[in-house]
Amino acid sequence: MNKPKVVVQPPDGRGLREVTMGGRTVGSAWSLRGLRKVLRRLGHPEDVDVEDRSLIVWLGGDSGTWPARTGRRHATIALMVAGLLGSMALLIVVGMPDAIGALTFAGRVTGFLFAFAGVVQGVAALAVLDYWGRRKLTLSGALILLGVSIALVTNGLLLFMWLEEREYTPYVLTYLPLTGWSLWALQLLLRERAWEGIPYPKQFAAGVTATTLLATFNLAYSALYQPTSAPVLFDLEVKFGTPQSDTKRPIIHLPVTFRARNSGKVPAYITSDGYGIYGASAKHASDGSGLLEWRKLLDAKMDGSRVGRYEKSPTRETISAARFYGPGNWLEPGEQYVKERVVQLPRSATYDVIEADLTMTIMRKDRGRIDDEFSVPHYSWRPKDKQFYCPPFECDEHIINRGRVLHNNNMINVTRRPRYVVSYYGWTGSSAEIQSYVLSHEPREALHLKRDAAEENQRERERYGVALTRATAAVPFAQVLKTSGI
User: Fold this and answer.
1) What pairs with residue 191 in β-bridges?
2) Residue in 392, 393, 387 with CA at minimum distance from that of residue 447
3) What pLDDT digit, counting tens, does each position of 90-140 carry?
4) I want to staple 127 with a disulfide (CB 3.0 to 4.6 A). Which of 143, 217, 320, 414 is the partner?
5) DSSP state of 254
6) What is the residue extent of each domain of the chain?
7) Which residues contact 76 (CB under 8 A, 6 or more apart)?
8) Does the predicted model carry a pTM greater than 0.85?
9) Rg (alpha carbons) of the chain, rounded to whole number
10) Exposed, middle or buried: residue 91 (CB in 10 Å: 0-12, 13-18, 19+)?
């Protein structure tokens, strides 16, 4: 029984020619060599005469019509696979930190969507081999179209966010070219009509649109709305206890309690803090001329707000001062931290008032995360801390903390320069110096940046929700003496 003739179909748009026999597809070939492989599988000898019209029928060209541009096709495959794999790696790098460690549920959903989108692009990269190959999978074109659409939306979004401030970051070298690549790939797929073969094209388009809108909504909610909708509420309290007179020494023991409580719904870092206990005194101005001293006090760099009509020449000296909770620690909503101190006061002291204050600078934890390095103190008077060292005759002595701030949404981390938080703690004879800065560059001379950082610090403080809070208390020294039984 004679075999049915082999029919070589006309080349398609890629140059691939389908081979049929008896109306059934038996293979395909890019070249004459490939056709001979198909014929051998069908039982024909290796040297079969392809010009024998009794065996082979040629449609749309003869045995010399092989328009497949192998080099161009391989280059297209390489570019498509490289772009999809590059975008996949970027999305997984961006999404996984949020999917695993974001503080908010919305942030984790956004991170998961980015990571999942990266996985889809990995599958699309595999589909490239089939689509520009023999197209055995009906949905290979749709998968590639989906992967390229995701790449265009996500890389375009990252590029748009980068353009807001145009700060250099190594990641811009990825999403900038990937955005251009995705535009090229999309127009190529549209020209190829890659959506053909999708069973439900409208539902496919609706699913892509819904996924994009969900990711955009979660990003806006976790990065913009949620960090501003809930205020940070901190309650600070300073309270004096009952003084006790020492039975063996001429001193008084005065208890002081410092308390900080996060009464809001947002966790917050402590970027700088400290408490101080002071003894204040002033001369009596019987003529009521004390108010005239305020300019004199300001010229002497003293607190001009401490003037009183019947007080003049006020003085204030530090009795005790220290950090409270420490930079880098944080308080969750409802959590509090309490520190109790007992200070020693000489009975013969000439203070009029004993004062105490608690000062804290806090930063919203839902807007940024401070790395562990910030908890390590550096001392300005120690030469071994080279970057922070400043000779005592040039600078006041400070304890310095410095660390990097990572935004709580990793999409912003890859489109912005790193931020740094620096805090200072020091004291003088009359008060403590407690300051913190948030900067968009790494401080190289931490002690010298204070004079140049005011404007930038204010902008970054607003971005990360940095705020200063303070509580004070005072008690007459005469009352301390009386209560202690003297």
Assistant:
1) none
2) 387
3) 999 999 988 887 766 777 888 888 899 999 999 999 999 988 887 778 788
4) 143
5) E
6) 6-58, 70-229, 234-483
7) 132, 188
8) no
9) 37
10) buried
